[in-house]
Amino acid sequence: MIVEGVDPRDTQWEVDRPVYRVYFWHQPPAPSGVAQEHAMWHCDEYRLSDVAHVEEVLDWARNKARPDQTFVAYVEQRDAGRSGLVRLLGVDPNSAA
Fold first, then answer.
1. Residue 97 has pLDDT above 80, yes or no
2. CA atoms of 83 and 64, how far apart (whole Å)
3. Distance (Å) of CA 36 to CA 27, 28, 92
4. Quick check: is 3 in a domain?
5. Sign of the dihedral through C-alpha 65, 57, 80, 12
6. Which of 30, 66, 68, 81 could form a disulfide with 34 if both were Cys (CB 3.0 to 4.6 A apart)?
């Protein structure tokens, strides 16, 4: 981790009430003859708006997640009309990283 001081005047805009996405991942039991690590992951995706702060999103996700699920929380961002995601917490199990 690299920690640096910043000049808060270097930003041009901010979003006070961003839109979030939470993706819940689970890996069902593998079919007969398939190793569990090769079983496909399944995902349920949600979009959360009108949120007061990120802790509200994280509390909701932690309470909603089943014991067999992990979740990833993102901020939804638009740039030139294109949607993108900024990861806040968690790891996509399909990610190579």
1. no
2. 25
3. 9, 9, 17
4. no
5. negative
6. 30
Nearest to 29 by CA among 18, 39, 20: 39
| The predicted structure's pLDDT at residue 96 | 61
Amino acid at 69: Q
* Tokens coding 29: 């039991």
Report how many domains make up the chain. 1
Domain-located, residue 43: yes
Residue 22 included in any domain: yes
Residue 1 lies in a domain: no
The length of the chain, given as a count of residues? 97
Three-class SS state of 60? helix
Task: Give mean pLDDT, residues 41-68.
Answer: 95
Angle CA 82–85–91, to nearest 5: 150
